[in-house]
């Protein structure tokens, strides 16, 4: 005959089993969460530059990404045993990282070790992912070039471009849905904003060029035409000087001739009286005849 105490023990046994099952499920969930507790963003993505990581880029609307999730969870639960870190990136929430890692297809898996980035292109099963890490198969994959690596200046600019595109998309939705503008009205607003921004950037660029590259003073070199003109002017001046000298000589000669004529007349007037008397006598004889 069962006592009340025994009945109480048997009555609590299902509760204990249910509690144990619940704790087991919570443990598995905690292990899975531990494997994927790191969520990368534009603020903490540089954490992957240290240590060894496996990164998954996905989107909620991607069917292939949804198929990968179960295998990725299995792989993430073993990440602690493998000595690596795992993280997932939702490209719809982090467009900057999508541009920085140059994600062109989904899902995309990257292996990162000490700042070297390699894209995983093998089978996407949990066992294959673990083998890729344990067997160091990543050594057979060429790393991403330095100019194309996420920390590079080019990829930083690409990240800003993707963030700008997402901001424009959000602004377009705000203009059309919240303010009620038509689609063409939103395009007009963005077109005017683009023109204004281009004018401002052009003005700043011109000012910087004038400031950094100021024109140097140049010594003026006379051209051939100017040299020929100056030579012609010099020749004209020489000819004028020569003509002026000849004119002076002619004037001097005229003055000398005039002076000689005057001297002759004076000589006739001042001649001796005998010659003048003879001339007068000859004139009288002619008159008598």
UniProtKB/TrEMBL annotation:
InterPro entries: Thioredoxin-like_sf (IPR036249), Thioredoxin_CS (IPR017937), Thioredoxin_domain (IPR013766), TMX_domain-containing (IPR052454)
Major localisation: endoplasmic reticulum
Source superkingdom: Eukaryota
First and last residue of the signal peptide: 1-32
Chain spans, region Disordered: 220-289
GO molecular function: disulfide oxidoreductase activity
Entry keywords, A to Z: Disulfide bond, Electron transport, Endoplasmic reticulum, Membrane, Phosphoprotein, Redox-active center, Signal, Transmembrane, Transmembrane helix, Transport
Biased composition (Acidic residues): 275-289
Protein's cellular compartments: Endoplasmic reticulum membrane
GO cellular component terms, A-Z: endoplasmic reticulum membrane
Chain segments annotated as transmembrane: 184-209
Domain Thioredoxin as annotated: residue spans: 24-138
Topology relative to the membrane: Single-pass type I membrane protein
Protein's UniProt name: Thioredoxin domain-containing protein
Organism of origin: Petromyzon marinus
Lineage of source species: Eukaryota, Metazoa, Chordata, Craniata, Vertebrata
